[in-house]
Every structure is written in C-alpha cells, then in structure tokens.
Design brief:
It contains 25 helices and 42 strands. It is an alpha+beta fold. Strands 38-1-21-39-40-41-37-36-31-32-33-42 form a 12-stranded mixed sheet, sandwiched between helices. Strands 2, 8, 9, 10, 11, 12 and 20 form a 7-stranded antiparallel sheet that branches. Strands 4-5-3-7-6 form a 5-stranded antiparallel sheet. Strand 11 and strand 12 form a beta hairpin. This is Argonaute 1B. InterPro entries: ArgoL1 (IPR014811), ArgoL2 (IPR032472), Argonaut_Gly-rich (IPR024357), Argonaute_Mid_dom (IPR032473), Argonaute_N (IPR032474), PAZ_dom (IPR003100), PAZ_dom_sf (IPR036085), Piwi (IPR003165). Keywords: Repressor, Ribonucleoprotein, RNA-mediated gene silencing.
C-alpha cells in the first residue's frame, strides 16, 4: 500500500490535534519541563472505511498466532503519521479553534449538545469562581539546606512573610506551593533577593533548649502567569488550557485550608470537621473535604465534595498494639505473626516520647527489635561499654519499664537505630493511614461516608461557608471571588430502553421503571443449557440433605427462567474441607468426566457452597476451575443457602445463564436495528480496565483486562481476556504484541487481535466499527493512554488484513471524580428516586463540563444508599462522528444490559465487565501470597496475556521480563466467566 494513500485515508476535516491542559494536567505548563513533541493523530472519516473484502480470510484473519506480518506502513501507521505536523489548509479552515501549536494534541470538539430526554434542572457541587483581573507573577524559591518536608518549607516561608511582608515584599501576601514556586498578585519590589530565616524546632534539644535551624532562602522572578489566555480558553477561543494559570489559582485557594487542616492529596481533613469514628485495630476516620479548581463551560469552577479517610489513632503505642492484635499483650508472649503485623502497621509512623515530662521529642519508627526489651543492650561509649536498655531508662530518667517482655521500637537511622520501649511512646496525631484496610474497617468507613443526598448537599454548603472564601485573605489578595451557591445546571432525563425477553414468557418485552425491573413472568431471551453438573459443599454448617435441596431449588429456578437445566447432577453433592480444595476439585472433576466422556459429553457447571467467611477459598477455587480444569463455577454462600429466597435464586440463575453461553435480555432497539452507529454495520464494543495493587504492595503486578462484544446486532455477550503487567503500569501492554518464532518468523498477537478473531468466529462477520470504553484513566494520563492504545488497536487490525482499519471511537469512563448532582427540589417526587437521588438516565453536558471537548456526566443507575455518583464519559477519539445524543443514548441503554442483575448499573457494562475480569485475575497469580492476596516473592513484575501466546517481553521501564498469568481454558474464555 502507498503511504500517501494511507495518510489521506486517515485525515478528517477536524484539523490538527491539540494538547489540553487542566489541573492535574495533561501536559507540562509552558515554561516547565517540556514533554516530547506531541504527534498528530488524524481521524478517519466513515467514508474511508467501506466494507473491505477479506482476500484470504483463512490466512489473514483466522488465528491469534497468525504469522502474517502486517504491511510496514500499516504496522507503523499512527507512528508514521505522527511525524507529519503540517495541517491541510482546507482542513484547518473547518476548525472552530485553531491549535496554539502544531506539535500538540487535540481531543474531539463537542459535536453540539444533546436534545433527547425530559429537560430538568439539577444542582452540582461546583461553585462559580470569578476570574481575577490581576497581574500574576511566579517566583522560584530555593531553600538551603534542602528539606524534603513541605511542612518545614511552609514554616520557613510563613516566617519570612511574617518578618518581611511590610518591609521587603511590597506588602504582598504570596501563595506558596510548599516546594519551589511562589506566586504573587503584582510584582515584588525585586527580581532576586536572599533572606536568612531561623526556625525554632518543634522537638526539644539536649537539656530542654529548643533547637534552632537557620535557612537561606533565595526568591527569584521566573515568569508572569497569563490569565488572559485562561479567559480565552474558558470562552472556547483557545484550545490549550494555560496550565500554570490554573495552578496559581489552585495554590492560592489551598493556602488557607492548608494552614488550618491536614492536607492529603487534594483533600483536607480535621477532627474538627465532624466526629471521629473508630474503625478498629487502632484506626479512626476523620471527616474532610475535597477541593479543586476546574475549567468548565460556566467559567472557572471550584469543585467541593465531602470525604472521609482513615487516620491512626493518637494512642499510646501499647494501646495501639493491643487494639491491633485485639488482646491484652501482657497476657502471653508475641508470636512471630504478631511481630510481623506490628512491624507492618507501625513502620513509618511518627511517635512522641512521654517519659521526659514536657520534652516531647518526635521520632519516626523504622522497625522493631527481634529481642525483648529486657535482653537489649547498646554501647554507651567509644570503648564499646554495653548498657542494658532497662537499666539506662531507670538511671537516666527514673523510669521503670513494666513491659520488659515486649520488643522495643527502632527509631531514626536504620544503620544506627535508637531503641525506645513501646510504653514511653505515643502516636502523634494527624497521620493518615495509607495502607490497605481490612473488610471490617472498609465497612465502618463506608458507613461514615454514606450520606443521603440532602445531607451531603448541606455539608458541602456548610464547608463553603465555614471556609469563608469571601474572607480568605489569599483569595482577596489575588482577587478571586467564589460563589456560595451550588451551580444550577440544565440536565435531561433519558428514557429507559425497552428490553426483549423470550416470546414464550408472559411478558415478552419490559420497560424498566426507575432503573429496575424483575424476572417475574419473563424468560431469558436465550436460555443456556446445563445438562451435566456437580455440586461440592465446603461449608460444614450445610448438611448434604440441605445442599441437595438447595441445588434442586436452583435448578427449578433456572428452568422457570428459561434455561434447559437437568435437575439431576452427574454425581451426588459431596462435602469437603476448605483446606483440601485442590485435591477435592480435581478428584470430583475426574470422577464426573470418567462417567461422561464415554458418551462424548462434557461437564457444564460446578455449583459450590462456601462458608460465609471463606478466606482464600473463593480465589483458589476460581483459579483451579478457570485455568486448570476448564469449567465455569457458581459459588453460593451458606447464609443464602439457608435463606433460599426467590430473589436470590433468580439472580443466581442470571449469572449461571451467561456463564454457560446464554443471554438474559437484549435491547429491543438492537433487535430491530435502531441503534445509530451500531445497528447499521457490524460493530464491536470493547471495555478495558487496569487494576493496580493496594498501596504498600510494592512488587505485585497490575492486571489489565479487555472484554469485547461477541454478538451483533444484540451487543450483549462479552468475551474477556486478562493479562498481568508491570507494577502500576497504566498502559495496557498486551493489546498488541509481536515476537519472533523460530519457525514462523515474526508472529503477531495480543488481546485486541484475539477478540476481533473471536467476534468474526461468533458472528461470521468482521467488525466495521470499533467503540472502545476505557475505564480507570485519570485526566493526566489521557494523552498517553490514547496514543499508546489507539496505536495498538490500529496495529492489531492491520495485522489481520492489509487495509483493514475500522473507524474507532475511544471513550474514557471515570468514576473517581468528585462531581455530585442533586435534585433542584428534594421534595419533588417526580425529580428523585426512593433514596432521594436524581433519577436514572440524568445526563449533563453543559455548564460544569469541559469548555470545548466532548464529555458528559451520566447517572445511569438508581441510588440504593448514599449519594449517587454519576459516571463521567470523555471522548478522546471519534472517527465514527457520534452526535451527543447518539453516544449518550447508547451508553445509557447499554447500562440496562448488565447480566448480573435486573437493574441499570452506574457505568457502561463493557467497562464494568473489564473491571470484574481484572479483579478475578488477581486470584490466578501464584499461590505463594501475602495476607493481602498478592504475590510477594521476588520484586520482578509480571506480564503476559491469558489465552494469548505467552512470550516474555519487556514492559517500558520495567527492566525485567515478567511471568505470564496461567492461561484461561478455551471454553472458559468464550463465555462470561467473570460474572
């Protein structure tokens, strides 16, 4: 193929891509460290992608391991096009906004606002911020000796302003970021100046005297922050968000709360903002609020939301350890497991000593001694004279250590640690707990954070009034005015879609009411078949007779719901011990297959009864079934087995049906081919997500998952693939990959290619349109993720067949944002659901959304408890030219096709399924796991595709080849095993 034709094919009259900024930004501020030039992405027009004949499908589009190497120009299509940074004059003429730089990237412009649905007004937790009319200056700050603590830096600058504001700073009140930058409204009366500042230390020195530290501070003019360009951007007349201007305003508005409260990320916490709540094991929750300035269609907006997080209780260390272990620690010696738990919980925690009266020196814990306090000695002079810790404390401080059987805390330098007995230490207040919470603590924290909408709205307004932005000296200095009223926003309530059920049921079609419906009088649109099944019971509280009765009721419900389900198992239910899971599963599977195989039959399903608290049993079971035996399983907890409610059995039957290849329901519009840009030609919808290990798990991998629809026009069934990759790597590495095979040469594969082939096998057609919903990407990663993953999609398509490039729409789905929507009138029964939340289907694409780009907030679900969080959808790429209505309606309607329940869900199902699949794959890692369920052996990251050919490759920056996950069995991959 000629390269010239290829590039023409991908041009769209949308002009040149443009970088976008924003707080937390997508791109370095001008004047800051520059990123590599952003290449140009040309978007394909639909006309460029008429159906292409397959040529020789058996060779070009048949197997994941196909050795057909894509043509060079197509393999590097995006990469090569990125080098072309000139805009066609005629294309540029159609652009509404001219890019500021030809070397920057542009996301699609909003294609107008949506019109579908019933119009209404909602309130959002955004507060209008008036753009100041000030001359902002940025200064570089250098503090010597350098310290890593922002707190110390702030204390130095606070002292400097206090001493020199009137005399040397021209009466200016500067805003400081705690690091290297200082901002002022108007110039300081110098270009560069040196200051000497003396700080009295919090900690006492020898003899009780306060230690004093001297710092040299150099302040030097760096740049002027241009608010004119920010105004242009907010008006839609400039494509770049001036990052540094937004940063200045953000820092200014954070100055006062930073001095008042405990800052954590973008939030502020204090015990004064609400009652502390105990979380157990020495932790407590503090209330707080999130604050961020954002560019929106209504101008600058301050986004405020309530939050809670875990802090370490400021307890004496002895009490903390007693709570942690849930026992009196003087009653019996500590076990090795106890020591590990204590060390893990206390490492890095700051304590103050209590044995010296008012001299409260502070230390950071670095470890725990292996010996008891009574056995510890240390050198007291250069001759190496040793003294016992117990004796030293008695002689020096007159303090008699009571708990001599406990280890000491090691504090300070790890090379030459100091020993402190636990009983002389108290945990310093205000330390956030950043490690993983256990299930009980998570439940307790959720209980605290779960607020009804009206209550949350009241707290947000109270926070705004309490912070008194109108009286904030920094806001006044910089001329920033913040409204004290929630933004009122135009919204629309999209109608629920009609759902299709089987014609043999009494109700063939169903229109959900307020985001929910039920299975009464309905049969699954495609009931699956379970001819051969077995049951294993791991719960000692469930008798064999109860297990048989439960299985019988479940089989009955599956049949009522429309499945073909043999009421008799292949073998009678068997009881087993949880610690024998692998042996029992394999033996029972073997026994069943011995009976079935002579007749050419397969085992369709395993039903498992689990104890309510089953530890690692669930994960072990799923790993063995899906990667070793090749069977789908349905787990049921003991409490549900005894209760055996109809609602529960109906929900379980929905999950079983999709696990054996059935479909529960489909959209009526899909069957009648009425979905714009989906029904007219074969369309595949992808969902992708990456889940990262919990904080503190330094070596466990991140898990990527990709699912893709396998039916068209129905778009209800999704096959899934999972892959482990380098620790905290957000880009999905195995979307497309190549490797060298000794016999076949260059071989191509990866998750996209495998799922495209799977779609072709299932439907008999190749996708002519791709819609890709990508979950879990923060704003700062938009550019990077789009560039890398769109390139992988392109290469995967090209590797299947020359010239095969279906148009792609790439949409990021975000749930971790802080925008909340409230009914304009909480008493209006037509505007809220039973939980007091806005109605499902509420969509917002004005005022609080991006000034020019294609994004929207959609609350697609009914609230159950607390305040509903709308999903935020941001279109990063659109070659299918979706209108706002078409994409919003498609997204909302898909939320009614989630297989596991008869409710609409909060994020689009392909993204939800990808999240479930990624979560499931954590169980597939090697069994030698830590107590948090992650691989801890070795520091090497893991990588490799499940179901793809596992060749070891290097992840960017990983430096080491990584181990693939065990492969999913073929029959498992084809069905929705993750449900």
């Amino acid at each position: 193929m000629e390269m010239g034709r290829g590039t023409q094919q991908y041009q769209r009259g949308g002009g040149q891509p443009q970088r976008r900024g924003g707080i937390g930004g997508r791109g370095a501020p001008s004047g800051g460290p520059s990123r590599p030039p952003a290449p140009e992405l040309h978007q394909a027009t639909e006309t460029a992608h008429q159906p292409v004949p397959y040529g020789r499908p058996s060779e070009t589009y048949s197997e994941a391991g196909s050795s057909s190497q894509p043509p060079e120009p197509m393999t590097h299509l995006v990469t090569q096009q990125f080098q072309q940074l000139a805009v066609q004059p005629e294309a540029a003429a159609t652009q509404a906004i001219q890019p500021a730089s030809s070397k920057s990237m542009r996301f699609p412009l909003r294609p107008g606002k949506g019109l579908n649905g019933t119009r209404c007004i909602v309130k959002a937790n955004h507060f209008f911020a008036e753009l100041p009319d000030k001359d902002l200056h940025q200064y570089d700050v250098s503090i010597t000796p350098e310290v890593s603590s922002r707190g110390v830096n702030r204390a130095v600058m606070e002292q400097l302003v206090k001493l020199y504001r009137e005399s040397h700073l021209g009466k200016r009140l500067p805003a400081y970021d705690g690091r290297k930058s200082l901002y002022t409204a108007g110039a300081l009366p110098f270009v560069q100046k040196d200051f000497k500042i003396t700080l009295s230390d919090d900690d006492d020195g020898p003899g009780g005297a306060r230690r004093e530290r001297e710092f040299k501070v150099v302040i030097k003019l760096a740049a002027r922050a241009d608010l004119h360009h920010l105004g242009m951007f907010l008006q839609g007349r400039q494509a770049d968000a001036p990052q540094e201007a937004l940063q200045v305003l953000d820092i200014v508005l954070r100055e006062l709360p930073t001095s008042r409260y405990c800052p954590v990320g973008r939030s502020f916490y204090s015990p004064d903002l609400g009652r502390r709540q105990p979380l157990g094991e020495g932790l407590e929750s503090w209330r707080g609020f999130y604050q961020s300035i954002r560019p929106t269609q209504m101008g600058l907006s301050l986004n405020i939301d309530m939050s809670s997080t875990a802090f370490i209780e400021p307890l004496p260390v002895i009490d903390f350890v007693s709570q942690l272990l849930n026992r009196d620690i003087s009653s019996r010696p500590l076990s090795d497991a106890d020591r590990v738990k204590i060390k893990k919980a206390l490492r890095g925690v700051k304590v103050e000593v209590t044995h010296r009266g008012n001299m409260r020196r502070k230390y950071r814990i670095s470890g725990l001694t292996s010996q008891a306090t009574r056995e510890l000695t240390f050198p007291v002079d250069e001759r190496g004279t040793m003294k016992a810790v117990v004796e030293y404390f008695r002689e020096t401080y007159g303090f008699v250590i009571q708990h001599t059987q406990l280890p000491c805390l090691q504090v300070g330098n790890t090379q030459r640690p100091n020993y402190l007995p636990m009983e002389v230490c108290k945990i310093v207040e205000g330390q956030r707990y950043s490690k993983r919470l256990n299930e009980r603590q998570i439940t307790a924290l959720l209980k605290v954070t779960c607020q009804r909408p009206q209550e949350r709205e009241g707290d947000i307004l109270q926070t705004v009034r309490h912070n008194a932005y109108a009286d904030d000296p920094y806001a006044k200095e910089f001329g920033i005015k913040i409204s004290e009223k929630l933004a009122q926003v135009e919204a629309r309530i999209l109608p629920a879609p009609w759902l299709k059920y089987h014609d043999t049921g009494r109700e063939k079609d169903c229109l959900p009411q307020v985001g929910q419906w039920n299975m009464m009088n309905k049969k699954m649109v495609n009931g699956g078949t379970v001819n051969n099944w077995i049951c294993i019971n791991f719960s000692r509280n469930v008798q064999d007779s109860v297990a048989r009765g439960f299985c019988s009721e479940l089989a009955q419900m599956c049949m009522i719901s429309g499945m073909v389900f043999n009421p008799n198992p292949v073998l009678p239910p068997v009881s087993a011990r949880p610690d024998q899971v692998e042996r029992v599963l394999k033996t029972r599977f073997h026994d069943a297959m011995t009976k079935l195989q002579p007749n050419g039959r397969e085992l369709d399903l395993l039903i498992v009864i689990l104890p309510d608290n089953n530890g690692s049993l669930y994960g072990d079971l799923k790993r063995i079934c899906e990667t070793d035996l090749g069977i789908v399983s349905q787990c049921c907890l003991t409490k549900h087995v005894f209760k055996m409610s109809k609602q529960y059995l109906a929900n379980v039957s929905l999950k079983i049906n999709v696990k054996v290849g059935g479909r529960n329901t489909v959209l009526v519009d899909a069957i009648s081919r009425r979905i714009p840009l989906v029904s007219d030609r074969p369309t595949i919808i992808f969902g992708a997500d990456v889940t990262h290990p919990h904080p503190g798990e330094d070596s466990s991998p991140s898990i990527a998952a990709v699912v893709a629809s396998q039916d068209w026009p129905e778009i209800t069934k999704y096959a899934g693939l999972v892959s482990a990759q380098a620790h905290r790597q957000e880009l999905i590495q195995d979307l497309y990959k190549t490797w060298q095979d000794p016999t076949r040469g260059t071989v191509t594969g990866g998750m996209i290619k495998e799922l495209l082939i799977s779609f072709r096998r299932a439907t008999g057609q190749k996708p002519q349109r791709i819609i890709f919903y990508r979950d879990g990407v923060s704003e700062g990663q938009f550019y990077q993720v789009l560039l890398f993953e769109l390139d992988a999609i392109r290469k995967a398509c090209a590797s299947l067949e020359p010239n095969y490039q279906p148009p792609v729409t790439f949409v990021v789905v975000q749930k971790r944002h802080h925008t909340r929507l409230f009914a304009n009138n909480h008493r209006d029964r037509n505007a809220v659901d039973r939980s007091g939340n806005i109605l499902p289907g509420t969509v917002v694409d004005s005022k609080i959304c991006h000034p020019t780009e294609f994004d929207f907030y959609l609350c697609s679900h009914a609230g159950i408890q607390g305040t509903s969080r709308p999903a935020h959808y941001h279109v990063l790429w659109d070659e299918n030219n979706f209108s706002a209505d078409a994409l919003q309606s498609l997204t909302n309607n898909l939320c009614y096709t989630y297989a596991r329940c008869t409710r609409s869900v909060s994020i689009v199902p392909p993204a939800y399924y990808a999240h479930l699949a990624a979560f499931r794959a954590r169980f597939y890692m090697e069994p030698e796991t830590s107590d948090s369920g992650s691989v801890t052996s070795g520091a090497a990251p893991y990588r490799g595709g499940v179901g793809a050919v596992g060749r070891s490759t290097r992840a960017p920056g990983a430096g080491a080849a990584v181990r693939p996950l065990p492969a999913l069995k073929e029959n498992v991959k084809r069905v929705m095993f993750y449900c």
